[in-house]
Amino acid sequence: SAIETLEKELANSKDTMTKVRRQYNDVVTWADMYNESPIDVKKMIIAQLINTVKISADYKIEIDFKISERQLGLDMEVQPTRKPRAKKKQSGVEL
After folding, report:
1. What is the pTM of this model?
2. Concatenated DSSP letters of 25-40
3. What pLDDT sits at residue 12?
4. Residues sharing a CB contact under 8 Å with residue 63, sequence separation 6 or more, in sequence order
5. Residue 76 scores a pLDDT above 50
């Protein structure tokens, strides 16, 4: 019946919400642990997550992760929030 179907959907939604809350709490816990860690521990954590970071002359940042964007929960491309500063010239040398 329609009521049984709706009750099953409600139960599934509650299950999903419980899982999402648990994952959120795990992420918050890991973030808090990272924030409270000494710099050497932070470096070790980052070394486990990132292969390389490349910064081009036009300030484009490219990060090669050891894990997938899906595993990070980032199924999107990150866009810069501001434009890079113009390059300055000093004594004929480009900075």
Report:
1. 0.43
2. HHHHHHHHHHHHS-HH
3. 85
4. 50, 52, 53, 54
5. no
